[in-house]
TrEMBL record:
<protein>
    <submittedName>
        <fullName>ATP-binding cassette domain-containing protein</fullName>
    </submittedName>
</protein>
<keyword id="KW-0547">Nucleotide-binding</keyword>
<keyword id="KW-0472">Membrane</keyword>
<dbReference type="InterPro" id="IPR003439">
    <property type="entry name" value="ABC_transporter-like_ATP-bd"/>
</dbReference>
<dbReference type="InterPro" id="IPR027417">
    <property type="entry name" value="P-loop_NTPase"/>
</dbReference>
<keyword id="KW-1003">Cell membrane</keyword>
<dbReference type="Pfam" id="PF00005">
    <property type="entry name" value="ABC_tran"/>
</dbReference>
<dbReference type="GO" id="GO:0005524">
    <property type="term" value="F:ATP binding"/>
</dbReference>
<dbReference type="InterPro" id="IPR003593">
    <property type="entry name" value="AAA+_ATPase"/>
</dbReference>
<dbReference type="GO" id="GO:0016887">
    <property type="term" value="F:ATP hydrolysis activity"/>
</dbReference>
<dbReference type="InterPro" id="IPR050093">
    <property type="entry name" value="ABC_SmlMolc_Importer"/>
</dbReference>
<keyword id="KW-0067">ATP-binding</keyword>
<feature type="domain" description="ABC transporter">
    <location>
        <begin position="6"/>
        <end position="215"/>
    </location>
</feature>
<keyword id="KW-0813">Transport</keyword>
Amino acid sequence: MKNTLFELDKLCLTLPDGRAIGPLSLALAPGEILTLMGPSGCGKSSLLAAIAGTLSPAIRQSGQGRLAGQSLSGIPIEQRRIGLLFQDALLFPHMSVAENLAFALPASVRGQARQNAVRAALKDAELSGMEKRAPSTLSGGQAARVALMRALLAEPAMLLLDEPFSRLDSRLRQDMRDFVYRHLQARAIPALLVTHDSADVPAGGRIIQLEAPDA
Ligand SMILES: Nc1ncnc2c1ncn2[C@@H]1O[C@H](COP(=O)(O)OP(=O)(O)OP(=O)(O)O)[C@@H](O)[C@H]1O
């Protein structure tokens, strides 16, 4: 594929019981959102964990991931520049909204620039003026928007989205999909989306259908 930012070349996982997930090969262009679907237990979350670098050591991995021209093999999690969003916002409960956002900023962003970045992220999250609020006082949709902004402030080269909309009620889901896809596309950040809900697939987006692991 022309203009590939992320690619997987025959990523294959072997579970402790010998079953194999994959091989999975794919390529993502900047800003592209590719959806992984498949039955429960087919290995969607494990594949994302392998890409993020958080896979259980009990699962063997072969095949390569490359992000922005660099192999991910042997690269520690914190150096991968891969952001994660899950079903739950997972904000730090002991920190304010602004502290949650500032936590994600690279150390190279200092002083006034840090405050400006947090303020801009709050505005993008449609939460201006709520910097001092505790995460427990936010609605589900507000917390989900902060979680996306926190992931983006870390300046990821790509995002992994593991059922990020599944806990939101149906009224909020469409708003949140539009919100996430708009911000990823504006920043040309590619993403892999795991979902059971075909309504989550962005318009015109590609889908890879996974099958249950081979015995
Ligand atoms: N640490 C582990 N040790 C052994 N087996 C594991 C481990 N983690 C996951 N598995 C197994 O790997 C398979 C794939 O699990 P995974 O959670 O990746 O599936 P999934 O497609 O994301 O499922 P769901 O849609 O239900 O979230 C399952 O059979 C699961 O039991």
